[in-house]
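Protocol step 6 of 9: fold each sequence in the batch and record its structure tokens directly after the sequence line. For illustration, a two-sequence batch is reproduced in full.

Sequence one:
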Amino acid sequence: MEPIRLLYISIEGNTRSFADKLQNYANGMHDQNSKYPQVELKEISDQSDFENETQPYFISVPTYLTGGNGIDSGVTELMTNSFGEYLAYNDNAKYCWGVIGSGNRNFNEQYCLTARRYAEAFDAPFIADFELRGTGRDVERIYQILIAETQKHEN
């Protein structure tokens, strides 16, 4: 079984921490039973060169916004713009099978707003969310979602 690819951007390390936990969990599951796919990570940052993606992937994006409330009084994406530009590069977006969002629930309606906006912009489903660095339960839940979403596309 091919590894599940996850592209992500991490500003303060929360998304990277979650991605690393997800990869470790997936690899542990794969070691126990090869029917479980591994997770392959690719971090995108302001320093990343644009590349043409040629294989399906999921994305994980944190929420960083400024201005307005993001619902009815506008919003400006902050700090994840290079990730959006990478996804928009050439045909990269067509390989995106789903969006995972993260954020802080204290921000109410803005929780995972960046991920929901990416899902709309790149015509990909918003498939999961986690708060801050996520919990072990989040890792297991999202891994199962990634497997299910991958199977949908392969069938």
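Sequence two, same batch, same settings:
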Amino acid sequence: MIELAYLVDMDKVKSIPEEVQKVIGGILQVLDSEYGANRDKYEDDGGYVVVVEKEEDFQVIKDKIYIDCDSIIPEYVDKIVCTNDKDYTNSLILCNNEYAISLIIPMELLPQNLKNHIID
């Protein structure tokens, strides 16, 4: 599992497809410009991005962030089509009116609950 809260964190995701990096970069750009690049990602308004790398990450998300991907109702789930045929999704989870978690999940790991919310 990779956590990113600021645009300067982008080096953490160099190994994932460029299309996914572009989506993450856009999210982080908004968070930095609207909520500040010096905010505390856990305490201050804004939120952060979580990249799921393996099935076990869902339990960490449940235990640490209190998001159960099998039952959560996302604001939206966007499909990220990649040229390498390994597609991802971006699921926006609103925690309150000024704090959100964007879950970046490879399509093959996406829980059925989130699949049901994909916007085509």
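Proceed to step 7 once all outputs are recorded. Observation for sequence two: The mean pLDDT is 95.
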